[in-house]
Design a protein that fits this description.
Elements lengths: L3 H8 L9 H5 L7 H28 L5 H14 L1 H9 L3 H14 L3 H13 L6 H7 L3 H22 L1 H9 L2 H4 L13 H9 L11 H20 L5 H15 L12 H11 L3 H20 L3 H18 L12
Amino acid sequence: HPSAAFTREVTDVGCVYPPTSILFFLPLGWFSLQSAAALWYAVNLVALVIDAVLIWMLFAQDTRHGLLALLAAAAFLFKLPAVAQTIDYGQSNFIALLAFLLFWKDRDNFRGGLWLALGFMAKPYLGVLFLYSVLKRKWPATLAGAATLAASFIGCWIVIGTAATFSCFTSSPYSRQPGWVFLQKENQSLLSTILRLRGWPAAHAPEADLIYLVLLVIIIAATATLVSRAPKEREDWALTLTLLLGLIVYPGSQFYYSVLLVVPALVLWKVSRPSLVASAAAFLFIVGEFLAIERTDYAVFVANAINWCLLALLLALPRSVHPQTQPA
């Protein structure tokens, strides 16, 4: 018989993702296991290609050599260590990146809300983008996202019933998992990093760690303050800072979520372009960051934290310090 810890971790984990994610994967149930797996990988690979095109459109289209920039964007994305990991594990990171990039593009209209909801269903940490949407008064996207999620919850309730739909909230899987799960190196969240550094007191629930709660409040408050005060020309930075907040504080943040680090890397590169020295520094930082991630999974949290600090510093600087910034 399996141990109680094994049962809680593997066979009785409850609804780890929001129940609306069930609707996201529901069409796969219409196919055989082999056909569903092939379809899932095909959808993710198509999403990866679209990601590369969107990265070019948002960050490199205004460069002199358009086709070369597109190829460079594709090569940069495909070289990320997390891309191979995402394919190996059949993860939805390419879809999460696609939802984020589409929200970036459509954040000022109702379509942005659809991408907000899709991102939340693909990866719950993207729900933090609602914070950005509210603080920057993106009301069309906010309302459309809330309406889409409400409709998906109703659809989920119809499909799987009341008990299963609300089990994600009434019996949180994170509160029922054995604490040592958060000590695994694959978990690169703030909570997991703190527990690994100081040891996990088995008598306490991991998410009740005092140091974690204090740092959680500080980073959320700092992010909310900087995002709310960001002027129009720095909204790209504010959105990227919010993304990094989600990657840092989400308790289940995994090492292969670093696919999304392509965004802050490109934001820093774009910010540095007016200066040759700054461009060289940004290039060395980005290369060093991804080489470190390739060598050790532990570097993902450090990369998230450093990128957050750099974006927070940029947002805290007076507007006169960097007048060249332009919205994407």
